[in-house]
Amino acid sequence: MQFLCGIDEAGRGPLAGPLVVAGVILKKDILGLNDSKVLSEKKREKLFDEIIENSKYHIVFKSAKEIDEFGISFCLKSSILEIIEHLKEFSSNFLIDGNTNFGIENLQKEIKADAKYPCVSAASILAKVSRDRFMDEISPLYANYNFHKHKGYGTKAHIEAIRKFGRSDIHRLSFKLKTLGETESLLQKTLF
User: pLDDT per residue over 36-94, tens digit each?
Assistant: First the structure.
């Protein structure tokens, strides 16, 4: 298990922005690793740099357009396959946080792995920080939506911004919003 590669994602459920998947093989123990959701932003940022310096890693971004075109499951699976391809010379053991391995032969799965295995915690942190930084960077380009505050998740303020301004080109059109009375996605509406 010394060369276990942990894999985790950030951004499966937001209404806007990319899906980010990271794979990490730690070269040394790092103190303070945990599921990124239980760590403060400041702690995640500090650990991000330490993980980058002390691991073999690969980070994959899938855009909102790719999610709309291919679906979230396809984007997750193709990201995982890319990570395995990039890191296979360093590991033959891959573990993902969650309840599915997407039919990938040498991929183990475990619920809450991001809290149990340091390499999966590290992948969780790389994915979350990379995605948050991206949303902060693009926020000024989409000033009406305040992405730096909610990172594209469906907060009340974000849904109100969508109600007022519609969706931007960084929003996922395949996600329907019941709170806006949508019975089908905008993507379905444009296809039929």
Answer: 889 999 999 999 999 999 999 999 999 999 999 999 999 999 999 999 999 999 999 99
**Residues facing residue 44 across a β-bridge:** none
Q: Report the predicted TM-score, pTM, of the whole model to 2 decimal places.
A: 0.92
| Percent of the chain whose predicted confidence (pLDDT) is above 90 | 85
Cα torsion angle, 25, 108, 18, 132, sign:
negative
Output the CA angle 127-129-131, nearest 5 degrees: 65
pLDDT in tens, 85-144: 999 999 999 999 999 999 998 899 999 999 999 999 999 999 999 999 999 999 999 999
Distance of CA 105 to the CA centre of its chain: 22
Q: Which of 141, 181, 158 is nearest to 172 (CA)?
A: 158
11: left (phi over 0), alpha (psi -120 to 50) or beta: left
State the Cα–Cα distance between residues 174 and 136, nearest whole angstrom: 23
